[in-house]
Amino acid sequence: MLKSKNSSSFSLDWIQQIPSSIAIIDTDYNLISASPRWLVNFQFDLDQIKGKNLDSLFPELSQELTTRLKYSLDGLRDIKFKYNAKNSHYSSEDSIWHLNPWKDGYGNIIGVIIKTEPISKTQELELELNKTKLLLNNKRSVAKIGSWELDVVNNLLQWTPVVNKIYGLKVDYEPTLDNAIDFYVDESKDIIKKALDEAINSGKPWNVKAQLQQQDGKIIWVNTIGRPKFKDGKCTRIIGTIQEVDEINQIDIQLTKLENELNEYPLFEKIPLGLAIVDFSTGRIINVNQQFLKLSGHDKNYFLNKSVKSFVSSTLISKSDNLMQQLENNGVFKPEKFTYSNKLKHQLNLKVTGNLLVGRNNKKSILCTIENITTQTKLEKRLKNTINASREKNDQLLNFAHMVSHNLKTHATNFSLLLNFLNDEKGLTQRNKFMTMLFNASDNLSETIKGLREIVAVKSNVNNEKKSLCLNDSIFIVEQNVAGLLKQTNGKIINEIPDDVTIKALPAYLNSILTNCITNSIKYRSEDKTPIIILSAEENENYTILSIEDNGLGIDLEKYGDQLFGLYKTFHRNKDSRGIGLYITKNQMEAMKGKITVESNPGQGSIFRFHFNKK
């Protein structure tokens, strides 16, 4: 047994928050902490008893308690005993104490957790039943069994003095086979004679119960056993035992009575969970409790003798072989969740666990515990939705931050290029043309900043914010924004989109998506080719699909396909690559309930298809 010197360093604030009656002691049996309910139950003040030895708090339990605490510190789990309030100065009600080892994070036992709960009638019956079973086993172990031996060849019978006592005879009584059989009454005499005859002639042993009349006339039940012994193919002797079974029968009757009382007492009904007993071999329902009937809304006859598969989901049925295997191997099967529609057509989320029960004659059944976790499932779903919403908000914030950086960098690059062209140009006509382009770039920058302000105000329900936009109008604005890049690279945009094509999108998102994709087509161009970008559109039932095709470097999708839209993922050696654009674009499309598909091969360019949801 390991003793932790740091047990006091553990935070035990949690124990003050729990509703159960719990106390914690260290390996020296000193009280470390206790829950408010435990303190109330035993009328203690934590400040006054903290650190005191449990023996001093409960001197009436000293020997019994110390023994059980030692077992618990040795690693035994769920040790329990009955606490009698009449022997106590503190508590006014009897209780059951449950002792379990308390372990640190390394698995070392550093104390004992004691949980107390009021004792119920059922638990009292269980304790009495266990005591009676122990008594029965003890009595059986010391029960008087008489031995006897029959010499078949010489027809001589000998037995031990215990047999004399069972027959009610004096110790000096000399038995014979005939008078020994004569003590048996009615049909029992015939049973013994037949058993004896079959043993001698067929070698068949016997083990039977029969009625025997003692010498004083009292009739008792005895259990007699005979085993024939053969020599040279002939039965030469029979050895056996005889035992009075009335006393044991009485104990069996008491035991059966207690078991019946336990079964009749509504333990099966008092447990606040649904219970069902299922026949192991047939899968038919033997019994269900009232809590189960409350869940279902049906009466008991609706379930009795029906196959359990009639009431569970197909998912659970598909696992039935595995569950039966778990029962065979471990005696239990792990919790399984399934849905069930009750009589009122309410969809319930249930959790079932099973325990294998083995009764008399090795008859097997399954005790199924059914817990209604509908509320818990709803809370978990609500929590999951909250977490997802929070994650989505965080993604939107990150998306926005990257979009601001990315889009403003595009405008800054455009300004820088146009200013360089203006500075190098001497002709007045060309200078005026570049000035016009600068003014347009300035206006577009203002529009971008305005759009970014709109994004800040976007709520979680993007669908309410989407507008029907003329696709070519948005493309025209982006063409102006990248005019400097197109001129620098001699790039060309071929727009095959009809003027009447509209899409539902958030204006700022659409502008960002077009800008990212077109600038990428220029940025990742082939050195030996003039960049050409082809825009086209098509429609299906759910989406308007914008295709942007280029003749650039292309992407090895087999190698990078799963990383394509990752944050800070780059696939070409370009000093301006930051791995942000496609990440932003994907998030923007998904925020508008759309999606992106890609076709690309190294050296053969790429086609990005943007599926804008029509709803």
UniProtKB/TrEMBL annotation:
Domain of life: Bacteria
Reactions mediated catalytically: ATP + protein L-histidine = ADP + protein N-phospho-L-histidine
Enzyme class (EC, first level): transferase
PROSITE patterns according to UniProt: HIS_KIN
Residue ranges annotated for the Histidine kinase domain, each copy included: 403-615
Enzyme Commission numbers on file: 2.7.13.3
Protein's UniProt name: histidine kinase
GO MF term (any one): protein histidine kinase activity
Keyword flag Zinc: no
